[in-house]
Amino acid sequence: MNIDIITPDKKLFSGEISAVQFPGTNGSFGILNNHAPLIATLKNGEIIITDLNKQEKSFAVNGGVVEVLNNNIIVLAD
Length: 78
What we know:
Blueprint: E1 2-6, E2 11-24, E3 27-32, E4 38-51, E5 56-69, E6 72-77
Parallel strand pairs: 1-6
Antiparallel strand pairs: 1-2, 2-3, 2-4, 4-5, 5-6
C-alpha cells in the first residue's frame, strides 16, 4: 500500500509500506494492506511506518487527519 505524509510546509514521506501505526484521538490504531475505507483524526504522537524491508521509521506529528481508501493512505499532519 502507498502512503503520503504531508505537512503545511513539506512532504515528510511518500512511498510503499507494509504497515503503519497512528496516534488516533480515540486511541492508537494500525493499518495493514486491504484495510476498509477510513477517515480519522490524529493527536500529538508518532506515526510509525514499516517499509517493505521490515524497517521502521517514525514521524512526530502534532495532530492531523488520515484517510485510507483503496490501499492509498493520505495523512495531513500538523
